[in-house]
Design goal:
single chain, alpha+beta, 9-stranded antiparallel beta sheet, 4-stranded antiparallel beta sheet, about 30% strand, dioxygenase, vitamin c
Length: about 210
Amino acid sequence: MAMIEQTIFNSIGNKIITKDREIPVVARMDEPLILILDNVLSYSECDSLIDLANNRMQRAKIGNSHVVSNFRTSSNMFFEESENEMIQKIETRISELMNIPISHAEPLQILHYKVGEQYHPHFDYFTSENVVNNRISTLVMYLNDVEKGGETHFPSLRFSVTPKKGSAVYFEYFYNDNCLNELTLHAGKPVEVGDKWVATQWMRRQRYRNV
């Protein structure tokens, strides 16, 4: 019988308790570890994140090269680290949830997809061998309900997550068995009706922030 690899996430059971929130675990896959979580953000936090980001959106770019591509057709922005009290509160909750110090976190990203916009299948970690401080886990938080389309799709697993306001999908890719990492290939499927807002948190293997 194969041994299950050690994961970053250390919660057992059907809920995660942070200092300010009780987060139900709706569904779970063990390898690679993928969790669907409810109640990660309140409705008012979702609305506030959209309002704060709305006038700061720019066309999203790809990876370390920072180029515009039809591979990714959404718009995005990044909050400053602990930019205000609400962002700091959400960052602290995310750090507890993802079981990684906030010093390892990239800035919180907001993404907006209009009808027809999508992100083709990709890895969140960098595939170059000379990356010193790679990403190790992702939390995608849904800020609104999407009328049709916009699922987060894992093609290798034939598995999709439907956007639901306040909910999130967590996945990690820090395994010794690289085949498990490759199973986290995922896409943002095209929005068919309405639009889609998400907040994304990436964590790094080593300290990323100065704090």
